[in-house]
Amino acid sequence: MRFKLFFVLLIISGFSNFIFAQDKKEDDEVLRVDTQLVDVPVVITDKTGKPILNLKQNNFVIYEDGKRQETADFAATNVPFEVALLLDTSGSTRSDLSLIQRAAENFINSLRVGDKVSIIAFKSSRIGNKSTATSEVLNALTDDRTKLKSVLAEVKTRNGTPYYDGLLQIDETVFKDAPKDDFRGRRALVALTDGVDSTSAADFAEAREQFNQAGIVSYFIQVDTREFFEENLLGDCEGAMRFSAAQIKRYYRTFYPKSKIEKVSGFCQLGDFERLDISKSLYQLADVEMQTLANASGGKVFAVADLSEARAAFQKVAQDIGTKYSLGYYPSNEKRDGTYRKIKIELKGIPVGATVRAREGYTAPTN
What we know:
Rossmann fold; 6-stranded mixed sheet; 23% strand; alpha/beta; 4-stranded antiparallel sheet
């Protein structure tokens, strides 16, 4: 009788342990699903600026807000990338469309086998009784070079720059779905633009937040169009190149938010001095915004004087993409509090003088 009782208790005990283990396993799985895997693209260069290749996972240590994290994912430099290629064919670039198309095609051909590309450009649309420029995703991500060449041929010039809207479309359309394992932490924006928005419904803060959350590496080939713009900005307002109403509002909102000066909404109400000041300020703002996205993501800005230099800049971007490592970790801080977390990468077993360019941080999700 005692033996039977002992046997029954043993069975109950074992069954309870099994249930507990199952519950614990399920809890761990739920916790892992609910915790965001943070992707960190990284480029390592030696003291001469040459990329250091063939590193292993144990060469990297990740810190979040000063606390060491456990690396859960690692991809070497030969793993493919997904690239959103944004082409700005407005303003002074309109006379050089063929140059843009050839430079973009050369860039695509410079990417590695397996790299996928989606092309985003601007088109003319009618909203009500007005014609305006809007952004358009011309193709889904693909590694079909013949198809991409055909898509490039469809790119047209447009009178207007919905640059911020284009950035949002990249996050919300091109990179809408979670990446497959092969592309985790390996998504990039490559934009040929002067960065001066004129017609977007969105603003930069919205695009920056979404890019920060998604961990998209941002590269910019920054075309200098300021001289061309300002040469056509002055004089008779009817024949001059104009600011849009959105640009004038952005100027006052950004640079004189608390000023009591009378705020002009129409271009023809502006004098030449005011036009030049607005132009200078908007180009400075574009510089800051591009550097902000690039620095925060581990990307880079390549400034070019004109489109004849775009091909060489595209080559540099392709080389940089081909030398990126990708790290991933589940944060030890599991709070979903919307706070900004700083990321730092430490190197082990690397020659003295090596430098790191990586994602600087991210904003934690909220409940």
